[in-house]
């Protein structure tokens, strides 16, 4: 750089530090003397290659940056009110590999995959975490199940008491249907099931000339005389008696030992079948 005269410099001022304002960076070679470089408003321009030893307090430092889209141009970088340089993210490299934030649909999970986790907070008792209109986190129970309430899961008839409007959907499968026992005039007693079960419906036709009693016993075999039944339904002569879930309830009558019925002439105990002709009774029992 050739020697240059700088005007308006008061050389009589003691300890005056001379410098020069240049809009573009000069180029020096060899042992040429160099001048401090200033901005147009008198601020010292400091290059990142400057090395300082000791404790130095620097104020009002201008940051000079190069335009990455055009390396031939440069300018002052922007800072916030605290002097922190402004950094703009100009691009993000997308991807769906194990180390990428993005993942493909239906991609199998592999331990160590990178991604953005949807965080939730464990709340065993379920308490409010934010006020109305504020951001909040998902909540889980101690097993990691996401907490939810009926009000947001589905509509119902009475949300205050957790009562929903539902309807039954019949399925043509045995899984959800009771078994059917029938005895059409061949016997007046039988052990239908030798293990625990529930009775949902009974139906019996009495064509004899006397009233009879359909007794239900919690046994694994037809009981002996004088056995006391779990339930009794009268079968008037010449009529059909049906008792369904309106009587046994939706869950049915539970028998924890076995499911047995007898038709008796005595109401409250298994008395005798004298005078009863099995051919005069047709019986249906629906049970599980």
Structure in words:
With 288 residues, this protein is mainly beta. 3% of the residues lie in helices and 24% in strands. The protein contains 2 helices and 15 strands. The chain has helices at residues 150-153, 245-248; strands spanning 19-21, 36-38, 64-66, 74-76, 120-122, 138-140, 179-184, 189-193, 197-206, 212-217, 231-235, 240-243, 253-255, 259-264, 281-287.
Topology:
Elements: E1 19-21, E2 36-38, E3 64-66, E4 74-76, E5 120-122, E6 138-140, H1 150-153, E7 179-184, E8 189-193, E9 197-206, E10 212-217, E11 231-235, E12 240-243, H2 245-248, E13 253-255, E14 259-264, E15 281-287
Query: Strand portion, in percent?
Result: 15-25%
Largest sheet: 5 strands, antiparallel
- Topology-level CATH name of the largest domain: Jelly Rolls
Number of helices: 2
Q: Could you give the distance between the termini?
A: 105 Å
Weakly predicted, low-confidence segments: 1-6
Question: What would you report as the Rg, rounded to the nearest angstrom?
Answer: 47 Å
Which CATH class of the largest domain is shown? Mainly Beta
Question: What pattern of helices and strands is seen along the backbone?
Answer: EEEEEEHEEEEEEHEEE
Notable features of this structure?
single chain; 288 residues; mainly beta; Jelly Rolls; 3 domains; four-stranded antiparallel sheet; 15 strands; rod-shaped; disordered N terminus
């Amino acid at each position: 750089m050739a020697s240059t005269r700088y005007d308006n410099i008061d050389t009589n001022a003691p300890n005056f530090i001379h410098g020069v304002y240049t809009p573009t960076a000069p180029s020096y070679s060899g042992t040429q003397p160099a001048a401090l470089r200033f901005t147009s408003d008198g601020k010292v321009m400091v290059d990142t290659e400057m090395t300082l030893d000791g404790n130095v307090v620097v104020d009002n430092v201008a940051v000079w940056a190069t335009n990455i889209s055009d390396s031939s141009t440069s300018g002052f970088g922007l800072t916030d009110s605290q002097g922190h340089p402004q950094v703009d993210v100009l691009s993000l490299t997308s991807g769906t590999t194990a180390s990428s934030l993005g993942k493909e649909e239906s991609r199998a999970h592999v331990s160590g995959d990178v991604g953005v986790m949807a965080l939730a907070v464990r709340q065993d008792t379920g308490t409010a975490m934010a006020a109305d209109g504020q951001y909040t986190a998902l909540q889980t129970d101690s097993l990691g199940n996401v907490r939810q309430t009926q009000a947001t899961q589905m509509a119902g008839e009475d949300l205050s008491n957790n009562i929903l409007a539902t309807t039954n959907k019949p399925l043509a499968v045995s899984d959800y249907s009771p078994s059917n026992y029938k005895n059409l005039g061949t016997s007046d007693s039988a052990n239908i099931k030798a293990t625990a079960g529930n009775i949902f419906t009974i139906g019996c036709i009495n064509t004899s000339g006397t009233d009879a009693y359909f007794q239900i016993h919690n046994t694994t075999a037809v009981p002996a005389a004088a056995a006391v039944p779990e339930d009794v339904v009268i079968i008037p002569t010449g009529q059909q008696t049906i008792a369904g879930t309106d009587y046994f309830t939706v869950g049915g009558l539970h028998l924890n030992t076995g499911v047995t019925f007898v038709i008796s002439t005595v109401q409250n105990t298994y008395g005798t079948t004298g005078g009863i002709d099995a051919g005069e009774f047709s019986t249906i029992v629906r049970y599980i």
